[in-house]
Design brief:
The chain is α/β, with parallel strands linked by helices. It has one domain: HUPs (Rossmann fold). The protein contains 5 helices and 5 strands, in the order E-H-E-H-E-H-E-H-H-E. It has helices at residues 13-27, 52-78, 92-102, 117-123, 126-133, and strands at residues 4-8, 33-40, 82-89, 107-111, 138-141. Strands 3-2-1-4-5 form a 5-stranded parallel sheet, with helices on both faces. Strand 2 (33-40), helix 2 and strand 3 (82-89) form a beta-alpha-beta unit. The two termini are 23 Å apart. Belongs to the universal stress protein A family. Residues 1-142 form the UspA domain. Pfam families: Usp. This is UspA domain-containing protein.
C-alpha cells in the first residue's frame, strides 16, 4: 500500500513520533523505503539577520539539527527498513511540498508541534502547509 514513504523530520520529539509511524507502515509492506527529508531553514537569506553572530548561531543550529536526525536515521536502519536521507537548505513547508510532489511518494508523514491559533497565525504551520499542497496522502502525527 504505502511503499515509498517521505518522512519530514527535524529531530524534534514530534518528528521522532512521526518516524515511529513511518517505520510501522514500512515494516508492513515488503520492499518499502523511507526517504527522510530534513530541511534546514536558511535564515541567512532573511533581511532581518545582519550580524555575524547570527551566522555562527545558524551554523551551530544546522549542525545540531543534522546530529538530531541521526538518531532517527539509526532507528530506521535498526528496524531493517530501507532508508534514503536528504538534507536540504530552504524554507521547510515549500521545500517538503516540492520534494513530495516531484518524487513518487505514496504518503508523506510529518509531525505536528501543536501550535495554538496565535502561533499558527504568526509562524505558520509547516504540517498545515504541507497537507494543503501535497498531491499524495499526508499523515500528521501529534
Amino acid at each position: 500500500m504505502f511503499k515509498n514513504i517521505l518522512l519530514a523530520a527535524d529531530g524534534s520529539v514530534h518528528s521522532k513520533r512521526a518516524a515511529s509511524k513511518a517505520i510501522y507502515l514500512a515494516q508492513n509492506v515488503s520492499g518499502s523505503k523511507i526517504t527522510l527529508i530534513n530541511v534546514l531553514d536558511d535564515l541567512r537569506n532573511r533581511k532581518d539577520i545582519l550580524h555575524e553572530t547570527m551566522e555562527i548561531e545558524y551554523d551551530t543550529s544546522t549542525s545540531i539539527q543534522k546530529e538530531q536526525t541521526k538518531e532517527i536515521e539509526e532507528t530506521i536502519k535498526e528496524a531493517g527498513v530501507s532508508l534514503e536521507v536528504k538534507h536540504v537548505i530552504g524554507e521547510p513547508g515549500p521545500t517538503i511540498v516540492e520534494e513530495a510532489n516531484e518524487g513518487e511518494y505514496d504518503i508523506v508523514i510529518i509531525g505536528s508541534r501543536g501550535l495554538n491559533p496565535f502561533q499558527r497565525m504568526v509562524l505558520g504551520s509547516v504540517s498545515h502547509k504541507v497537507s494543503k499542497r501535497v498531491k499524495c496522502p499526508v499523515l500528521i502525527i501529534k
